[in-house]
Predict the 3D structure of the following.
Amino acid sequence: MKQFDLFGQEFAPKQDEKYTSKIKAPIYEPKNRKPYTLELFDNSKSKRIIREINNSNVSEEEKAFLIEAARRHTVFNYSLIADYYAHSAKEMQQLMERSALVIIDFEKAIQYGYVKLAEEVTNQYLSEYENGK
Amino acid sequence: MENDNFVVFILTNGRPDKVITYDTLKKCGYTGKIYLIIDNEDKTVDKYIRRFGIENVIIFDKIKIAKTFDEFDNFNDRRAIIYARNACFDIAESLGEKYFLELDDDYTAFDFRVYIDKGIVKPVNDLDKIFDLVLDYYKTIPAKSIAFAQGGDFIGGIDNGKELFRFSKRKVMNTFFCSTDRRFNFIGRINEDVNTYTSVQSRGELFLTIQNLSITQKATQKNKGGMSELYLDSGTYIKSFYTVICSPSCVKIRLLNSSHKRMHHSIDWNRTVPCIINERHKLNSRY
C-alpha cells in the first residue's frame, strides 16, 4: 500500500519500522477510572470455604491453618489493581508496591528494551538472510 | 560471544545418544561452553562421559537438591527435570559463571520468527550473536528469567490484525536465561515451569518471553527417555493439577482440543500476574 507524508510525497516505510510498530511490550496502560476496592478482588469462594471451616468441629489450631489456606482462592484482578494504583495517594501506592501488586517499569527499561531487542533480532535476521530475500 | 560469564546447560537424563540440543546448538552457530547436567541416579552417566568428555559433564546429587524446594507430593518418583533445573544455580556459581541458559535435550531448531509482511520462520545461523542480544536486554531489566517462544505458541498464526504474537509474553518455558544473582526456585515435581511462572510472578517477580525467537522440540512423548515415561504414566491430567495446587485462584483444568485430546492447564493471566506499568503513574516520579 502506498503511503504519503504530510506534504503529499510518497514514501516507503523502512522494513524495521513497519515490523516494530506491531511489536508491543507487555506494558499495561491504566484507565482513567478509579475502580472501587470491591472490584479489585473476588473472595466469594474463600468466604464460602471459611464459613464451612468455622462451622466444622476441627480444632481452633486447625481452623486457623485452614482459613489461611482458604485465602489462596481469593481472585485478584490485576488490571483493575493497576488502574486503582494510578489514581491512589502516595502512601497507598507505596503499600501496593511493597505488596508487589504492580511492577513499575523504571525509565521504560522493560518497554523500550523489549522493542529494541525485537528490532535487533530482525536486523540480525536480515543480515543472515540478505535482507529477507 | 561478547558476553563472558555465560554458559549453556543441557539438562538431560537417560539418553546419551539422543542429546539433540547439543547438535542443534552447534548447527546454529553457538561456539561457547556447553555442559551436560546429569543426576547421580542416571544409569547412563558413563555413556555421557564417553561421548561428551568428563570435563563437559556435571553430575549433581538429586536427593540433596530435592530437599531445597517443594515437590508438592510424596510420590518419591524423581524422574523429573525440576531437580536439574534447581541445581543449575549452584552449578553455575561453582563454575564461576554468572549467566546461564537452561535447555532441555530435545530441541531440533532455534528459529527467527520475524514478521515482514508475513510471518517468516528461518533457522538462526549465529546463535552467539542472538544470545548476546538477549543477554544485553536481560541485564537491563529486573526479570528473574527470560525465554524464547516455542514452536507451538505460533499455532493459529502470529498476527491477529492488531498486534503480533497472541500468546502470553509473561511466561517462560524451555529456554531459561538465568543469573546466579537472581535466584528463584522451580516448584512442583512436574509442570514445574508453569507452576513457577504462575506462583513466582503472582508475588511480583517478572518473567518474559521474547516473541520473535523460538525453539522447536521433538514431538512430546515421542523421544524415549527423559520425562516421557513420567508423562505417559499419568497423562497430562495429573501434571496439570500441580499448577492448580499452587495457584488455585487463577489456573483451571480444561480439555485441550488438539489432535490428541487431553486435559491441560488454563491460565487466566489477568488473575495471575501483577501488571507492568510506566513509571509516570507513580506519584512524585520524575515524569
